[in-house]
Amino acid sequence: MRIVWAEAGPLTVRTALERLNRERFPPLAYTTVMTVMSRLAGKGILTRELHGRGYRYEAAVPDAATIAVRGVVRDFGEAAVAGFVSEAQSDPRLLRRLRKLLE
User: Fold this and answer.
1) CA separation for the pair 37, 56 (Å, rounded)
2) How would you write 14-26 as a 3-class SS string?
3) What pLDDT, on the 0 to 100 scale, is given for residue 1?
């Protein structure tokens, strides 16, 4: 995701693979990166558009915190939201921010 977030626009699996493999040994396989990006698109973390015979991917979420929040809310639903609000009540600054976001 760090590579996708750093990109100014959509990127192909090939581009992501090249950037990932600059920092790795042994290198990742094309199919590994393609599978991960496809699964992230299926989860709504990436968006994809058809480009030739493949896809170009772009981030659908702004940061890792958003991914984490989605997972917690998905797994725990209302209880997660209630727990978050309960925690926010003990931090006046966070509570003000939460109220502002809800408006």
Assistant:
1) 10
2) HHHHHHHHCCCCC
3) 95
